[in-house]
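Annual report, structural modelling task.

Input specification for the fe (ii) ion complex:
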Amino acid sequence: MPFRTLFDFRLPTCLVHGPGSISRLPEFLPAGQKTLIITDQGLRAVGVVDKVIGVLDAAGISYACFDEVLGNPPASCVQAAYRRYTREKCGSIVGLGGGSPMDVAKMVGVLASHGGQVEAYLGAGKVLKNLPPLVCIPTTYGTGSEVTPFAVLNNPKTKNKDPIISWKIAPLAGILDAELCVALPASVGGPTGMDALTHALESYTNLMATPITEGIALSAIGLVGRNLRLACANDHELEATGQMLIASAMAAMAFSQTRLGNVHAMSHAAGGQFEIHHGLANAIILPYVMEFNLQARLEKFAKLAGLLGVNTAGMSTRQAAEAAVEEVRQMNRDLGIPAKLGEAGVKAKAIASMAEVAMKSGNVAVNPRRTTLRDMEQLFAAAV
Ligand SMILES: [Fe+2]
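The model returned the following structure:
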């Protein structure tokens, strides 16, 4: 099918990659100003925060550390981190960890340059000024928040996850250092890696794909196919872990331009009602949505099979496309990910309400196959 002819491609972030590349952090921070490290206590406990502090000490950059970020951070967490930022008179921010610390770092940057309460900046187009220098350092390989214009705020009352959307919040730099991911357990690495695969796959097949995003997404899918299982196999696979960090960032570069598809519409709806890890929900839902979308993008799905490691010699296009779905199921089995959302706590009685919420997502509008409420209910019924 023809590509869209009118599109932007943006990537304001400088990416630095390689084992030990955390040593480059001081290059992006203003000399003579204190920086605020935003992270979580898990990374403090395994010594990752100390590694970052060691680099700052060696460069003579003073710092404060806010290590109280939990998963799905609410506004109170962002405001607490921002109070620390102002009390310590910081001039730059380092987000260290998974999606949650990086997103809090972005939102503290918004408050540092705009003031007020973080809720005022939810939605698109509300962040108008440049943020203080912000460096994001991922220690998982899923969200790609180090290159995206998104930060997600959790609303514990409504259980909604509301995004701030602005290219102003894309970090100045992202540092991809596999040596900082050594403490990532396979139970987290598997689902987060499948989240990265879902980002790339949804971007590659959706209605908004462009020649640039397709190329990036395809490379990311190949990297996940070759490296995710190995990266999860043990703590010492630095090469595979580094490749997964690249895959995660590339997948995010692609979906930042194109949005996603039905998988994310469904996982956000499920995550709003049940305590289910975002990557785990995506991993489980992905093969069901692939089956649904197959007929709209047969050749693209056939191409995925080869990238995921399937020998497609002698297969028809349809057979190769179906083999891609089966290979995603096999990846889930290898990574210990269940086949059904029900095994992760999602209840069948919520199918109708989850489908209704999912249909409101902008990701459904760009899904390659037109999706009705009835389709969405059937997708949930299959996946639960
Ligand atoms: Fe995701």
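Residues 195, 199, 264, 278, 282 surround fe (ii) ion (CB under 6 Å).
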